[in-house]
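in:
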């Protein structure tokens, strides 16, 4: 079973957007997807527009019994291929530092549950606190998300370092399989420069193509619908994520990673 966790140190770079884009592409390819919203801001939950919710990732982490996450799985508003474990604001209370064992709470809670899906996608908060550690400890692969801005290289470096720390301490199978560059404005010299810089530093990790900046992304997320349900520009964004998903999926199969 594939479990991808989206990480970035900085807020607002597109972790949630990439989570949603990958969920959409995977579902379109016939994969059963479970999205686990690990951010108290609950943006992925809003984007997936679940008709009802009962328990959240905060409850799951608080309980942490073997397989207990099954109780919190709910249908999304996107149809039968995408399910969700929603987040709510109280998840913030779980972001205090814990011991090594507490990083494994999510992994234990997901035991067995994740087997019902082809792909689990975990959307993390913009910090490397306890909740992100749980997301990484429960994953098979990590995907770093960055904007092509001034802090892109340093941010990617720190996120990869965080992945290495979790791998060495709690999850030996964890591999970073890609850096997704989001919000690219291809005409901006600064963006071109930052992408080139990232490609030079991490030639095998940068995922092609970068995700362009498109206002339809915000509209679709606000409306709680897949990108593809949002006209021609939404469909174009959907095709970009098909390529990003295809590339990441290929890497999980061929072992290109670090
Ligand atoms: N490629 C893009 N084009 C246009 N808007 C985008 C793009 N990517 C993200 N956004 C918008 O930018 C905002 C932040 O993106 P997103 O929520 O995906 O980032 P995040 O890394 O998950 O943020 P946080 O750290 O707060 O969880 C959202 O309003 C989103 O709709
Ligand atoms: Mg987010």
């Amino acid at each position: 079973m594939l479990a991808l966790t989206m990480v970035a140190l900085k807020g607002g770079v597109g972790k949630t957007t990439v989570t949603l884009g990958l969920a959409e592409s995977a579902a379109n390819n016939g994969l059963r997807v479970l999205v686990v919203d690990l951010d108290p801001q609950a943006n992925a939950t809003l984007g997936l527009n679940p008709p009802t919710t009962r328990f959240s990732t905060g409850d799951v982490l608080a309980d942490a019994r073997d397989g207990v996450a099954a109780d919190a799985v709910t249908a999304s508003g996107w149809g039968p291929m995408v399910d969700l474990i929603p987040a709510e604001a109280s998840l913030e209370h779980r972001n205090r530092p814990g011991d090594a064992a507490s990083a494994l709470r999510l992994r234990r809670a997901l035991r067995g549950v994740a087997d019902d899906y082809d792909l689990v996608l975990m959307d993390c908060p913009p910090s490397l606190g306890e909740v992100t550690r749980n997301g990484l400890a429960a994953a098979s692969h990590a995907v770093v998300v960055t904007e092509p801005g001034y802090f892109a290289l340093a941010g990617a470096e720190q996120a990869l370092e965080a992945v290495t720390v979790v791998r060495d301490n709690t999850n030996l199978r964890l591999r970073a399989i890609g850096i997704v560059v989001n919000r690219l404005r291809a005409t901006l010299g600064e963006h071109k420069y930052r992408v080139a810089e990232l490609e030079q530093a991490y030639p095998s990790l940068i995922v092609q193509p970068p995700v362009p900046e498109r206002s339809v992304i915000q509209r679709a997320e606000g409306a709680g619908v897949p990108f593809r349900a949002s006209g021609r520009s939404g469909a174009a964004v959907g095709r970009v994520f098909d390529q990003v998903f295809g590339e990441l999926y290929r890497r999980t199969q061929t072992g290109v990673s670090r």
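note: The chain has a mean pLDDT of 94.
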